[in-house]
Amino acid sequence: MNSLAMASQFFNGLSYSSILLMMALGLAIIFGLMGVINMTHGELMTAGAYATYLTQLSLGKLGGAEAADWTYLLTIPVAFVSAALLGLLLEWAVVRFLYGRPLETLLATWGVSLILQQAFRNLFGSNNVAVQTPAWLSGGLSLGELELPYARLYILALVILVFAAVLLYLRFTRAGLQIRAAMQNRDTAAAFGISPRKIDMLTFALGAGVAGVAGVALSLVGSIGPTTGQHYIVDAFMVVVLGGVGNLFGALLGAFVIGETHSLLEFFTSSTGAKVAVFALIIFVLQLRPDGLFPSRNRALDCWTHRLSAPRS
Amino acid sequence: MFPRTTNAIIQAQLQALGGETMGVEYVPLGHMEFATIIDKIKYSGADVVYNTLNGSSNVAFFKQFKQAGLTPEKMLIMSTSIAEVEIQGIGPQYCAGHYASWNYFMTTDTPQNKAFIKAYQDAYGKDAVTDDPIEHAYLNVYLWARAAEKAGTFDPDKVRDAASTFTFDAPQGVVQVSKANQNMSQIVRVGEIQADGMFKEVWHTPKPVEPQPYSSYVSDMMCDWPKGGLIKRTGS
After folding, report:
1. Nearest C-alpha of chain A: how many angstroms from B95?
2. What is the rounded average pLDDT of the residues A9-19?
């Protein structure tokens, strides 16, 4: 295998990793910071993707295809907000009754995911819809003989931006500080005057919003249907579990390891062969480090076990 | 199952015609990530891609194919599951210049087809497109109706016997059901996808092709119901 192919495969791995990271980031926030196993994560991504589709459709109707091209960047905030609102609704209607009960949350969110899939079917039809790649994202960057598609570079840039934004938000804003405090010790944070309800809603909305932006990325590489989310949710969970629950840099490393390994192996074997190998790798790593690559040493996770016995007041 | 069986037949036929298979790839249903496979195609030295993907994977494949800088001139894709409806879903700009093979295109020039398209668009809107699966769905119902009329009964055995006794003017051309295996003899067409999402036919078989339930390149068994069902192949 020549070096050109290697370089191209490395880039493909990077691109796949970036998509995985975007999907896993929202999950890492919700699962990691709140201990909520959110099975609707795939549907939140699909919602963001559908929002992208609708935005493009409306802009096209208002101003023609060129207007839709120029304003394509609008899809990002629209997708973020739509998914965040959907996430808020989910949190308010279902999840807030089930904090501290991870198994019930899993079951309940699984049920909601089925409802959402059917809702997508009713609203958009069971056939997939396709988001048109804007003209300025068509084609690619040619580095000698290496061809890097603009669409994938765009996704890479988007992921870096979103990751940085989330990190900066958590590190430097007041709300971010409150989130981290509540994550470390919920009751002490409450004693400091941080409203647990507000923090829960904020964190959930943040995770859901990031999932929505993942939907924007997904819509660029393929078509979107009611069950698109289901296809990716397992990958997203794998990244979070491998990286270590509750750690965003863990998710970054997990996504990179899984993405690159998968792409390089796929070149030598086949798509399904690579998937099997990646699963085996994850199982192997978890044998050595059961809490993931970067386990998060925070009291919130210790409190899980306490919560399982004592219900939330 | 469809891709594996089809690919086995394709590879056998290709070899018989003097071609060489450079690589075969399978993906799970609904798979969307084709960057690696497209890279493999690029570096394999192949001239043509024979695409037996089904469903939404085709959208991802064609999009990413073009995004990777591959054009029909550099690497032609020949597909078995891309029809007018799928092209609308993928976007004609990603498919233009590639080929597909069917028994029927919306552009097929028969008087029955013109009437069929008009009736279809009256029912479903003037932007509706017809394609091979749609045409077959339409055709099969009317074939059965004609056979039942001829048999004078709904009894399945009698209808089946009557079905192979007439030719039928379908939108795709003249078809006939085979007595030996109840499949249809049809003309096979190869078309090039145009920028407007329609097919331009570039070749078709001179006469309708007799149905062959399983390829003679891959198996020496054949199906002939009047002779008792699955029997050893005789002739080609």
Report:
1. 13
2. 88
* Helix, strand, coil distribution of chain A in percent, nearest 5: 80, 5, 20
Superfamily holding B1-103+188-205 = Response regulator (3.40.50.2300)
Complex ipTM value: 0.71
pLDDT band at B236 (very low <50, low <70, confident <90, very high): very low
Helix (H) or strand (E) holding B190: strand B189-193
A221/B33 touch (CB, cutoff 8 Å), yes or no: yes
Pairing, β B99-102 against β B189-193: antiparallel
The alpha carbon of residue A83 is apart from the nearest alpha carbon of chain B, in Å, by: 22
The percent of residues above 90 in pLDDT, for chain A, comes to 27
| CA-to-CA separations, B83 to A127, B198, B199, in angstroms, rounded | 15, 9, 9
Contact B69 A140 (CB under 8 A): yes
Across the interface, do B35 and A227 touch by the CB < 8 Å criterion? no
Q: Across the beta sheet with B173-177, what order do the strands follow?
A: B167-170, B173-177, B184-185
Do the beta carbons of residue B218 and residue B12 sit within 8 Å?
yes
Q: Is the pLDDT of residue A303 over 50?
A: no
pLDDT tens-digit readout, A52-90: 999 888 888 887 767 767 778 888 999 999 999 999 999
Interface residue A231 vs chain B (CB under 8 A): yes
Domains and CATH numbers, chain A: 12-135+142-309 (1.10.3470)
pTM, entire model:
0.78
Sign of CA dihedral A244, A248, A249, A254: positive
